[in-house]
Design brief:
Number of domains: 1
Largest sheet: 9 strands, mixed
Shape: globular
Strand content: 15-25%
Order of helices and strands: HEHEHHEEHEHEEEEHHEHE
Radius of gyration: 18 Å
Number of strands: 11
Distance between the termini: 31 Å
Number of helices: 9
Structural class: alpha/beta
CATH topology: Carbamate kinase
Length: about 250
């Protein structure tokens, strides 16, 4: 009886409205910079599998494959100017992803936190929600539109604004570890932890502002490996992969 119940539950998605956060680095593949069209097409196919489930999906994408404002600031550039350049980098990535999704026949809307009317709609919360209700994929670009805030924080903010049920954070590793698994063979994977534990451990998967915002609004975060095919769909069906942060 127990096995049958588990199988029955797995037939239905655990979430209906989700926000997926992608890093800019996810688009460059094995390159050291820029956008790999084959990788973008692969991501679009993974997203298509999810959209076919009648899921309301939105995306926030970083710009680290093109430009990092905080890194430029460390080398002497004005932080505000650097962050503005980073926002433009996210817009480039968003257009690339939109193109790949639409080539597969999906309907998308690109909403930007900074005004670029010939490329994207301005971000308006009610408009974003309406697009989702019509089963359009919504891509949020340009972060929050303000300097000093990361795209992780933008993802947390947008997730709250559209009343998403979960924030999915796609990474290069299969979850959260107590220390960097790429540098430490004895790193231990943490399947579940609460927000304060994440902050107290100083884990760098997401910045503290994003985590604090999710904690204040009880937004669960699932961190998982994007490189393994089908993982986005598995997370949405509630399979125990990656790590979850919640209250």
């Amino acid at each position: 009886m127990k096995t049958g119940r588990s199988e029955a539950l797995n037939q239905f998605p655990a979430y209906r409205r989700v926000l997926l956060k992608l890093s800019g680095e996810a688009l460059m593949g094995e390159q050291g910079f820029g956008i790999d069209p084959q990788v973008v097409s692969y991501l679009a196919e993974q997203i298509q599998d999810v959209v076919r489930l009648d899921i309301e999906l939105s995306l926030v994408i970083g710009g680290g494959n093109i430009f990092r404002g905080i890194a430029a600031s460390a080398k002497g550039m004005d932080r505000v100017a650097g962050d503005q350049m980073g926002m433009l980098a996210t817009l480039i990535n968003a257009v690339a992803l939109q193109d790949a999704l639409e080539k597969l026949g999906m309907v998308t809307r690109l909403l930007s936190a900074i005004e670029v009317r010939t490329i994207a709609e301005p971000f308006i919360r009610r408009r974003a929600v309406r697009h989702l209700e019509k089963k359009r994929i919504v891509i949020f670009a340009a972060g929050t539109g303000n300097p000093y805030f990361s795209t992780d924080t933008a993802a947390a903010l947008r997730a709250m604004e559209i009343k998403a049920e979960v924030l999915l954070k796609a990474t290069k590793v299969d979850g959260i570890y107590d220390k960097d698994p790429n540098l430490n063979a004895d790193a231990i994977k943490l399947d579940e932890l609460n927000y304060m534990e994440f902050l107290n451990r100083g884990i760098k998967v997401m910045d503290s502002t994003a985590i604090s915002l999710c904690m204040d609004n009880r937004m669960p975060i699932v961190v998982f490996n994007l490189k393994q095919g089908g993982n986005i769909k598995k997370v949405i069906f509630g399979e125990k992969i990656g790590s979850i942060i919640r209250g």
